[in-house]
Amino acid sequence: MTTQTTTVPAYAAPAAKAPLERTTIPRRAVGEHDVLIDIKYAGICHSDIHQARDGWGEGIFPMVPGHEIAGVVTEVGTGVTRFAVGDRVGVGCMVDSCRVCDNCKAGLQQYCTNGNVLTYNALDKNGEPTYGGYSTHIVVDEAFTVRIPDGLSLDVAAPLLCAGITTYSPLRHWNAGPGKKVAVVGLGGLGHMAVKIASALGAEVTVLSQSLRKKDDGLSLGAQHYYATSDDATFEALAGTFDLIVSTVSAPLPLDRFLGMLKTDGAMVNVGAPEEPVSLNLFSLIGGRRTLAGSGIGGIPETQEMLDFCAEHGLGAEIELIRADQINEAYERVLRSDVRYRFVIDTATI
User: Fold this and answer.
1) What CA–CA distance (Å, rounded) separates 341 from 148?
2) Are strands 262-270 and 291-294 parallel, antiparallel or unpaired?
């Protein structure tokens, strides 16, 4: 068991809005219940960009983003029981929680009432900054590590640790399945996984995108229908249609128009998080007993369930593999929606 802090290569933003650059960071010693993971791949999530550029508030710098981590266990602590050296594992958006609140006890660590510890841009229980997956190694408690099934390649599995679970959780919670009409707003990193998962659950899936530019992709991913929201006729044609709308976009939407697409008792769930406030006329909810909701990631048990589901149905992310020195370019391309559909860093290039 490692008895001292080690230093590993990483890519970090030295300050808010600054380009990411190669550096080194400390990783804690492997404790009794820790695993040391040799990171093979790390996905680039839009939330990495929000945080590296202080879009969601003041960040902790230098910042090493990355919470879509896939790799292999290379060392385990003396008390580890769930993993062994050589196991294929993943780490998502959090690396600890209080573990004693009602939500944590229920496996809903993402809603820890005392505050969970995020994989990066956070302080751990010792007050030290956490650093994410844009690095070669990470040390994580086994309780916040999940197993990647053999049926999933590590490169396409990495984005499932955020994009996959962020969409799987609301689809399961709001009972997407046979007989249900589900709309996915936005066909990006989250949206393309929402389409794949909703389709695999047996729902009738519609993509609502700004244009028809990605229509062929949407249909090939499992959607039955595809509409452009830039066309006013879309909102008229689809009024009262959906049981569930999952919005994956991180820009403000005209919520009242989208809520009008819901059936009575339908729900619109937001998993994308705009930096700006949004407005709402409450009559859009009252008129059809509709629900406007939000959803975060999933807890550790549900994340494992999602990975097993994706392996069973052959669902990996659609990725573009990049070198670490392409991260800054990739950020700009994400902002231009110029990726189909998730950048993944080959961490051997760090």
Assistant:
1) 20
2) parallel
CA 127 to chain centre: 25
> Per-residue pLDDT tens for 104-162?
999 999 999 999 999 999 999 999 999 999 999 999 999 999 999 999 999 999 999 99
Looking at the chain, the number of H-run helices and the number of E-run strands are: 11, 17
Domains of the chain, earliest start first: 6-162+317-349 (3.90.180.10), 164-294 (3.40.50.720)
Contact status, residue 188 vs residue 210, Cβ threshold 8 Å: no
Integer Cα distance of 115 and 127 in angstroms: 14
Whole-structure pTM value: 0.95
pLDDT digits (tens, 9 = 90+) for 285-300: 999 999 999 999 999 9
Residues 39, 69 contacting (CB under 8 angstroms): yes
One-letter amino acid at 247 equals: S
Extract the tokens encoding 74.
């290379």
CA neighbor of 21 nearest in space, from 343, 325, 340? 325
